[in-house]
Records
---
Amino acid sequence: MTTVGVVRERAPGERRVAMVPDVIGRLRSTGVEVLVEAGAGTAAWFPDEAYEKAGAQVVAASELYQAADIVLCVSPPEQPVRDGQALVGLLDPLRRLDAVRDWARRGVTAVSLDQLPRTLSRAQAMDALSSQATIAGYRAVLVAAGAYSRYFPMLTTAAGTSTPAKVLILGAGVAGLSAIGTARRLGAVVTAYDVRPQAKGEVESLGAKFLELTSVESGAGDGGYARALTGAEQQALQEELDRHIERFDVVITTAQVPGRRPPVLVSAGALAGMGPGSVVVDLAASELGGNVEGSEPEQAVVRDNGVTVIGAGNLPASMATAASTAYARNLNALLAHLVRDGVPHIDPADEIQAGVVITHQGSVVNPAVANLLDALGGGL
């Protein structure tokens, strides 16, 4: 019988856990045994006792890594999985090429949910990027509202009437649409922009205005993502955006391109033109950069002109209970597809597995990752 192990996340600020007690029963129904590292769910308010009550066995990390056939994580653990083991999580293989090489050399089967073919209807229940982006967009608006020193809605009081906040959402993917809906529910006047023309209808269906820009033609890419803009397109877009950004009270940026540095959408010049008390939240902020020039990952910086810039690249971790529950359901759906009668069946020819299986039997089997390795030279 296959044994699945749930590890405790150790990255700074990460409070999520890959599996929650409510989903343990469904996971075990696929014919697997479940081990949970002691304390794995504590930061998300899931105690060890709840896992044991659900039928899992709580063990030390050393025992888990030794006994588990499949290791479940949010992000890759610092401790290497053993040779021949399977690792399933948000592995970010396009940016962790050294780890990919290591997994392949040691015969690890690496399965990454962030490479899921999101256009397949039967893969929707596995779509961890969307579930986490929904939370990020929602949370971003609450973070912005908490930092903004005025009201979001129009309010009429004995002291007078306050005007509603003017909010700009840059990027109308899952996170952007979630942010639009949340800001609208809080009473803000919302405008949004996306390089993909088809996003206009989605933006307007939520009651927001679509910002019409003329400097860049369609930025639609494969798989529902935006494509990477050329250098000239990026410069033209940024210059046109700069002229609009300064009239908004709150700007939330959500634009990311898989495997690439996030595009800069809010320049230092645009920040300088915003009014004191304005707030900018950068959902793409990471060690690679972000959508906002000068944003710092997981930090809030108040500029000299009174504009607050918040680097918020891992907001789902701040809402760990809901984020972990959604993620656990995504993982369970994926494992139900991979495990049959308690035994994993890896088939890179399957259209879902062709996306998510990165390494298997000593080779890099994911085409996008393999092509990137070849382009950089040397392969494995």
---
Amino acid sequence: MQPASRLFAAVLSALLAAGPAIAADPFTVVAGGLQSPRGLTFGPGGRLYVAQTGAGATSGKITEITRPWSATPTLRDVVTGLISVGDEGEFVGVSGLSAVGNGNIYAIMALSNAGTPFPHSRLGHLLAVNPAGQVRDVANVGNFDYAWTGTHADLVPFGDFPDANPYGVLALADKVYVADAGANTLNLVRPDGSQAIIAFFPNNVLADSTPTCIAKGPDGALYVGTLALADSIVFGPSAIVYRVDPRAARPGDLAAVLSLATPWATGLWPVNGCAFGPDGSFYASELITSPDFSGGDVVKIPFATPAVHISLTGNTLAFPGGVAVGPDAHVYVSNGVAFLPEGQVLRLTRH
């Protein structure tokens, strides 16, 4: 696990004793009582899917929320029994979700088989889920990245490599991208399951970048948010959203991999989830907005003016995670990624 995650766990332990109050305006609670909710994605018919990392053992699941914009949304678990691992104050397991037009969902599992005592689990694997809830193993991203970082340990001077923690996923019609928060990489996963690393995200001052989410922009490029947790706590908002043009990718060329990501939006608090809206605006969930680990938020960034960050919740969230924009144009966010059983999916009033 990243040093930033260890710092998060230490502060989290103190906050848990105080007992958080999560739900309040300016949002509506769509679903409550969730176990460490993380990634969100909209599928066909306006169905919203949320990844629940769980509370240990095989309690991870993917849950479908029908009519999340209504006063009476309904919930149904489409996948259950996913591994959930307690890791220094939080649970990790199923993290990012991304749906494609045919109704399939892609889910990325955290960590790796190689870097944990669970060599035969699905940790670190990219999974495809069909509308009937059947799960297919697509690729072992965690082990791939763990091996890559083992041969490129000099890229991170903080002693973290080898490491892997796949966290964000973006599925397109003919390929899938995965952001690895441990390896600091952007992976391309092809339909046959073969993989390539196309971008590496540079180190911050105190710790590595920790990419957490991917969204496709109106210009066709990929936009990847980073956590930058340790630097943000010490220096103020230090997270960066990077632009990656996949058309310029040259997998296997290390110089190209190291230079492909360029800063697009800077000066953000730790970014934990991201999405684009129909008007081209970028939405990012900020895990915290204060060095005391409080004040989670969702910010809107107009595509033409990435220096403009518009708060949508007034820093009232408690560790928000995934973000998705619905067919009703409202913004949805998973809230309470580290609290049990207080996790929620919220529909924001402003969008």
---
Amino acid sequence: MAAISFTVIERDPNTKARTGRLLTPHGAVETPVFMPVGTRASVKGILPDRLRETGSTIILANTYHLALRPGADVVAALGGLHSMMGWNGPILTDSGGYQVFSLATLNEIDDEGVTFKSHVDGALVRLTPARAMEIQEKLGADIIMAFDQCPPLPADRAALEAAIARTLRWAKLSKAAVMRKDQALFGIVQGGLDLNLRLHCLEQLVQIDFPGYAIGGLSVGEHPDEMARFLGEFATRMPADRPRYLMGVGRPLDLIRAVAAGVDMFDCVLPTRNGRNSFAFTDSGVLRLRNTRHKLDTAPLEADCPCYACRNFSRGYLRHLFLADEMLGPILVSLHNIAYYQRWMARIRQAIAKGSLSTLLADAESRAAGECTLEESE
């Protein structure tokens, strides 16, 4: 029996969007879906039951960071990620390949793998496809990712081709190293914004045969409009019977654009990172809670939001928490932001079912200027 199964449920008649159901050993996931990021086995400040209340059904954790601290053997001894975190839903783990990009000043890449200088204690750490699979098996996630190389953008063709060659080599080695039958290994497509290179990488990955495919190497320097144009040409070239996962992308506008292009799964630190920095997502735009205009504001962050923060606290109180450096402020706004994202994904799924995603997309595009200002805070 396969570790996961994926079924397409409905298709939007005016876009390439679809809804689906992803079945995992720890439960079902309705797609399109957004996965909150718990890099170090914790969605910062959010208790698992509160996270579930937001509508979150699947979360992401990171192989590289957990390998450094507390260590894969420690996680395994504590029962694996599900038991250790107290989260009984599905979990996806990133292979650590993204850190090849994000921690480029601390690593050396060769055809066999990557040697990192640990950002924790400076010790040298070797990560290869086989080692990345070994760590992920000990972590015990439902979905694990092949080890890949993520090049920054813009990048010249030679750099993209070198990254693809390593990604394909490592994909084969990753699949060969997998031992557990209750984990699904996804392949990752690289190639920047070059459609032909992406198609070449995808073709080779499909021959290896994975139960799901991810699009890596986007939102790493290119303009969001460039990414949207590329996804519109590429996403539906991916196997129709497998989940399509866009890694590390998370503005609300980016999400609906990608869904309209045919993508099913997403993750991003944006809702929690910005929540910790006093930025709250709403349908009217992003609220900057440190602004003086919120000092005496008795309104919730969003009037129709059912999240714990909006049910119980005012903008004025939340502003006070941030100015007083009280940890409750980042917790509450992060909680609201995750809930906002999950309500957004629910609206997207409902619009697909009704055949009206193009209307919701047009509305999101009209509000894009307000959302784009968020990038100035990152």
